[in-house]
């Protein structure tokens, strides 16, 4: 089969032929990939930023946002069958450790992260996963339309889900970055809360899309000082909750400054460095909350929203052979929403 393989950091992945994945345990599931999301994490992997954290052995296949159709199942699999349409939780879990028993399966002590760690991901014609990672979808759902909800959508949903108690009617939320994750976060905020949504982005097209999706106000981050603009929109107070989907190149500092006293900064993007005076944390009682993926049950909830038309991905599709073009378009901010590789395209 064809697969997008990373051989060396700081070099573009290549398309090459590799053996089809095979069942190796009773709970294994082989999925024919219908769509694989292209994520900024993939760019960070290529740049070597995950080399120390996950230490994957090169070469391996990228792709951690995957959906498709069940091709084969192990002898112990009972929750899905051959032919089912599925989306895959990005971190297959064991179900036995304390994190799994507590419902925090993304924190599984024995979990894997296909496409990020050593296990091959889904930028290929087929991918091997676990029965515990499979969320069965309606047969009419097209995998390429929902694939990026497996991580980008799930991460945005996870952050908003945690923040709901902090966002009663009359509150204000800032979404910094209206791209692949942010445009999903806006929709989830609009659907699950009555908060006022302010979106900050440098791209006018992204801000126009944000308005269509439910944002009440917008701020150009490459124009006047975006922090001052948010403060003006909030009567000088700042936002009750700021969701930072960028968190690099100075955006992380802006996000902190946009957060009101007693408010919470939810950091979702990464790559930068947040420096905060401890006096500001103590004196203003601000909170900083990290967010990583989300739980299996949250993915089930998100897919219920997607299949009912409440949340929709805005995508640009590429055939698998055009993976290099997709990476370049994402790195150059030419993708509105999410780039999706479609093996059969």
What does this structure look like?
Pfam families: ADH_N, ADH_zinc_N. Its cofactor is Zn(2+). InterPro entries: ADH-like_C, ADH-like_N, ADH_Zn_CS, ER, GroES-like_sf, NAD(P)-bd_dom_sf, Zn_alcohol_dh. One of its GO terms (molecular function) is oxidoreductase activity. This protein has about 350 residues and is of the alpha/beta class. The chain is about 30% helix and about 25% strand. The protein contains twelve helices and 16 strands. The protein has helices at about 40-45, 50-55, 100, 145, 150-165, 180-190, 205-215, 225-235, 250-260, 280-285, 295-305, 325-330; strands at about 1-5, 15, 30-40, 60, 65-75, 85-90, 125-130, 135, 170-175, 195-200, 215-220, 240-245, 260-265, 285-290, 315-320, 340. Strands 3, 5, 6, 7, 8, 15 and 16 form a seven-stranded mixed beta sheet that branches. Strand 10, helix 7 and strand 11 (about 215-220) form a beta-alpha-beta unit. The radius of gyration is 20 Å and the shape is globular. The mean pLDDT is about 95.
């Amino acid at each position: 089969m064809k697969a997008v393989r990373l051989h060396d950091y700081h070099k573009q992945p290549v398309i090459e032929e590799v053996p089809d994945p095979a069942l190796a345990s009773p709970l294994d599931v082989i999925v024919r990939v219908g769509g694989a999301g292209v994520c900024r994490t993939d760019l960070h992997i290529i740049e070597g930023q995950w080399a120390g954290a996950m230490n994957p052995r090169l070469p391996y296949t990228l792709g951690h946002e995957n959906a498709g159709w069940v091709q084969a199942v192990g002898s112990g699999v009972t929750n899905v069958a051959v032919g089912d349409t599925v989306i895959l939780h990005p971190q297959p879990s064991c179900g036995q450790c304390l994190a799994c028993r507590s419902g925090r399966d993304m924190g599984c002590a024995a979990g894997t992260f296909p496409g990020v760690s050593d296990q091959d991901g889904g930028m290929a014609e087929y991918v091997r996963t676990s029965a515990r990672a499979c969320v069965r979808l309606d047969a009419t759902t097209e995998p390429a339309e929902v694939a990026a909800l497996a991580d980008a959508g799930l991460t945005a949903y996870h952050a908003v889900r945690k923040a709901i108690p902090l966002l009663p009617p009359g509150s204000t939320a800032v979404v910094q970055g209206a791209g692949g994750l942010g445009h999903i976060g806006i929709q989830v905020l609009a659907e699950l809360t009555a908060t006022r949504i302010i979106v900050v982005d440098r791209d006018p097209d992204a801000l126009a899309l944000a308005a269509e999706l439910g944002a009440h106000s917008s701020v150009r981050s490459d124009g006047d000082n975006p922090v001052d603009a948010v403060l003006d929109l909030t009567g000088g107070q700042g936002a009750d909750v700021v969701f930072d989907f960028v968190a690099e190149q100075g955006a992380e500092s802006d996000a902190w400054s946009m957060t009101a006293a007693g408010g919470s900064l939810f950091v979702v993007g990464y790559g930068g460095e947040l420096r905060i005076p401890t006096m500001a944390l103590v004196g203003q009682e601000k909170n900083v909350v990290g967010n990583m993926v989300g739980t299996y049950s949250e993915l089930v909830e998100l897919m219920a929203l997607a299949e009912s038309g409440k949340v929709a991905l805005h995508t640009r599709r590429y055939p698998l052979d055009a993976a290099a073009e997709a990476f370049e378009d994402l790195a150059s901010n030419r993708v509105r929403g999410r780039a999706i590789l479609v093996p059969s395209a």
